[in-house]
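Supplementary Methods, section 5.1.

A reviewer requested that the exact input to the structure prediction be made available. We therefore reproduce it here, unchanged from the version used in the analyses.
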Amino acid sequence: MLIFSWSLVALLLVSSSWAEEEVAAVQEDTSKELSVGELLERANRHRTPDFDEPPLIGGDIAVKPDADRNADPCTSRGCMWLKYTDGKVYIPYYIANHYSSREAAIIIRGLESFSSVSCIRFRPYQNGDNEWLSIESRNGCYSYVGRQGGAQTVSLSRQGCLYHGTVQHELLHALGFNHEQTRSDRDNHIRVHWDNIIDGMEYNFYKIDTLNQGTSYDYNSVMQYERYAFSKNNLPTMEPIPNSNVSFGQATQMSQNDIDRLNRLYNC
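The structure derived from this sequence is encoded token-by-token as follows.
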């Protein structure tokens, strides 16, 4: 009995040590929080899509094979989700069951973050819904831009995509927003260094005829990629102008400007 008791004590001490190490690791990760742009590029860098997954542009924007990659869905065909008579925009979602409860909680927190700042209301899928966001752990992080109809995949891979800001970023795509660096007025705020971009990836920096909702360019947008995005030589691919020292692409969650343009697009 004495041997059993000492064994139990030893096991409890080891378990406590493991728990402390896990907490320390979480705290360390928090202190070294990466920007959304860095997280997305890291998660999608070596992505190998399955045969049934869409091609991506801009690093994480899903497009249909025959789509015009330079067309903004909100401009060319309309991309907005429908508003109900109570002034709210209800968007059904389904979270695949391969996520753990902790992972699902991160996703739900991201979904719910929109309700406190806008008229967007994400709600669980119900029988009879004919369009919804199907949130799945596919290969990498990606979303289509705007409402597509039917089951619309938002990929949040369990390997690298489950962060609050990353969830917000992909949901903003689904709501109709492109990346900040592809805005139609980009050249007034960002200089692209084309020679530093990975060969074949230049299209990720092509401007789009976006609806900017009368808001100013936002270096702090959660939709703005960081200075070295898609770099082939560790040199900057983007530089802010006129002041090249301005910090940008470091957002870890939606900015006030992101929220303002969301509310303007949906007339919240």
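Residues 2-31 form the longest helix (30 residues). These observations are discussed further in the main text.
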